[in-house]
Amino acid sequence: MSFLAQTTTTTTVSGVTFPTLVLTAMVWSGVIFALVALFLPNQTQDQLRRIKSLGSTGAGAALFFAVWAVETQVSDASLGTGGIPGGDLYEQHSWLSSFPITSYYHLDVDALALSVIVVVSVVFFCAGLAAWRNQQHVKLLTVCLLTLETACLGILASYDWVLFLLFWTLAIAPVYVLVRAFGHGHKARAATRYAATSLVAAGLLLLAAVLIAFQSGQRTFDMGSTPVTLPGNGEAVAFWLITAAALLTMAVVPFHGALLDLEEDSTGVLSAIFAAVLPSIGAYTLVQVAVGFFPTTSGSFSLLFAALAVVTVVWGGLGALRTDDLRRLVGHIGTVLMGLVLLGVAGHTTIAITGIMFLLLARGLVIGVLMLLASLIQEKTRRVRISQLGGLAWQAPFLAAFWVLATLAAAGVPLLAGFAGDFFIFTGSFPAHRWASTVVLAGTVLASGVLVWTAQRVFFGASRDTFARVRDLGPLELIYIGILAGLIVLIGVVPGHFAELFQNGAGYILFPGTT
Amino acid sequence: MPTPNGLAVFATMLPTTLLVALAAVGGLLGWLRPGLPASFHRWLGAIALVGAAAAALVAFRGIALTGGVGLAAYAGGVVADRFSTFAELLMCGTGLLAILTSGAAQERLGSRLPAYNALILSATAGGTILAVQVEMGMLVVGLGLVVISLIGVVAVEKTAEAPGVAAFRSLVSAGVALALMLYGLAIVYGATGTTNLAEVRGQFVHTAPLEGLGLALTLLGLAYLVGAPPLHHWMLQVASASGGAVAGSVVSLAVAAGGIALVRVTVSGFSATMHPWVVVAGVLGAAGCLYPALLSVVAGSVRRLIGLGACLQGGLVLSALVGSGVGRDHKPAGGVIALLFSLVVFVLAIQATFQAVARLEADGFGGSLAGVRGLARRSPMTAVLLGLGLAGLAGLPPLGGFLARLLIASSAVAGGYAWVAAATAAASAIYALMVLRWIAAAFVEDDESAVVVPSAPRLASAIGFACAVFGVVALIVAGPLLYAADGAASVLR
Questions:
Q1: Considering only CB atoms, which chain A residues are within 8 Å of B329?
Q2: SS3 A475
Q3: Residue range of the domain that includes B345
Q4: Within-domain flag for A406
Q5: Which pTM does this prediction carry?
Q6: Complex confidence, ipTM
Q7: Residue A319 domain-assigned (yes or no)
Q8: How far is the C-alpha of A144 from the C-alpha of A116, rounded, in Å?
Q9: Which residues in B lie closer than 8 A to residue A137 (C-beta atoms)?
Q10: Is residue B339 in some structural domain?
Q11: Which pLDDT does position B206 carry in this prediction?
């Protein structure tokens, strides 16, 4: 029996052949560190500090391997092999060969996955730093965060349905436990609602996986060969099962309530992770799996996606305008940006899909910064309502500066990360959906206006005595916010670093046979 | 099938004979020499089970003489094949877990521990008969031995009124189940003129309504053992009333024996292509998954939650049966492989959760949500064991239960019963959500009660943890287990 027998790629260094394990190391480093943390004592401050260090090291290790994976693919992009599956990072081992439907331990990445992998690994690393001040349930927080990171990275790197579903469902328990442990307000309801939504999505994906495995006649759970051809209306059914699961997770209208509740009822660090990472996973599922498996079918429903994009952006913009809660506002902005992803899917062109990759990269970083800053503002001022805030720029200039930077990035200002995504999506979608693109653009402008107005209301105006003792960002906060903000600027200044990679990836998603 | 009879009798009946003989020896010694230490009886039982497992493996070597087909004895009434080897090993393993964890029940059982161990051995022996039988008479004997022994195991715990009541109710349910099965078998016999299950499928020219009724009644009776509705109440009673160790042993042995009997009778006997029983299995399986999952929403104690989880596993076992034939592409749907893999995983999850219940009892905690609240702080190891066990029952990753559900759903869809797969997925999601609530209560919510030093027996706790950990390992190294299950299933096709 060839159980776990190495079947494919190897790396040769100085004449010695090593199996390629970058993706395995990236995915599993979190859970390995979590297992170590699980068995460490947690009574004294020193012991708690050790657990926190371990958590940061685990997230750092995942980040290291993620950067390795990204740079490997970027360097291969000019050769035409970067950004598409089957490159240097490809890993495939026999796993469930005795069952009538075979399954493999198959890890691989394409450009879209890499864009979200960057977000996941950076946001989790920064969240680990942000969690340093936490003194409650330290071990639980560390273990759950590392497990959640493994689950998220696993979803993005899986090229087998069993693995994909395994990681998908693995993400549910840590989120549920984290919200129950560190949430406030209606935390039980928020956690249950999110878990129920994710379980429903997992069920839909399971049915899609089984349908594809049987109707394709391949009898395999492997996700490596695209596009998938199914007889009858099988393609449409499988496409909509996957799309429904993705939409549930992307927090687009009308499924946005669960994530907004989750963000509102969690602590700052968790809100940042949930807002930045979880919808991106849904977007990845929609574009990579649903569109990538069924490019023709997805193209035929393009008008529906355009309509959904319009509804999501307008609804999200109006929600942002209406809310008086800072974190909920950021949540609505996240929803608006997801509407842009839907417009990109509706556009169904290589340019639009390239734009989605840029947008997901930017969105994760921007929403992560905004959510962390929103939480810091609420924590430092002990005010939740925007209407209760004002004049904070005098006491906290760094806080204000980072907020303005993130606001501009979210608005798609050139030389910041958000620009490339917005530009490519609108350019790629406008020819096919002129009206929808125009309305979505208007909705995006509305959302950007709300963000700028919020910056005005929160940071500018006369200094208030109530906030005289509010302190600006400390050294630790400057580090983790600075990392995210630095990346927003860096990607904005040199988007060309990823351009070729993303173009290759977009071409592979829409025209897999020809790339 | 070739029948070199001496070898065949040896191969088919040696494990059962060993178990029955050593059960009798243990029981007699307990009666004649009441002063013998509990550990003596425990190790006697363990030796019997290891011996029976070794005998099954020896028989497996003997099967090679038939080119891997199998050995038949007593006019084809019993067979030793790769399925029987797998099933006997599963039964012996389950019995071994029950015997080794009996230390946790020692306080409740007192001087009745030898009887308890002897009954576990005889229940296992009943399971080994079910593994080798292909004849209605042997089926009834095996099933009767399992049922009576397990009811005896529940009844022997006489320290409280509840177990006695549970035993009595189980007896009544068992009577109904056996009656249903006997009526069913009688109809099948009437229709086919043979009591040999291997010959039944050949005799069914067409499945008239009456014959369909016979198949359905047989299935309904057999479903009792795995705790699937409508005869599932006994399992909930036992889970709620008996001690953790006793309940774990009874439920895990019942699920294992029930699963084996279902495969032998339906797949091997009736054939997976015979439509009526597959539809009934689908209905029972879907109901068996959804009903306990919905009840779990209002479960007020961890014992009831586990009991409902065990019933849910029974529903999953029945759901796997609908994929025991071939798919629309005329290739095996893999239901039996999924079922056999699931049985191993379910037995371990059930044992782990009930060992956690035994630790809760030993630590003096109640099983209500309030009692479980803050458990991770008061008794971390119990909380971890409970969490892993419940996660295993709910099929949460990274435990083997997740893969079991996925395989069952896949095989159901392959068999053309997507609605059964949808029901199992929905039930699993509902139950998982409820389990998450309890896990969160144990790990997240605070309780000011004092931290306790665990007082549960070390061996029983170690076995419980081993079961929970193997739940994770079963997913990672699912390949070899599926390979073995595939080998066992191949002889039934």
A1: 214, 217, 219
A2: helix
A3: 272-493
A4: yes
A5: 0.90
A6: 0.86
A7: yes
A8: 20
A9: 444
A10: yes
A11: 62
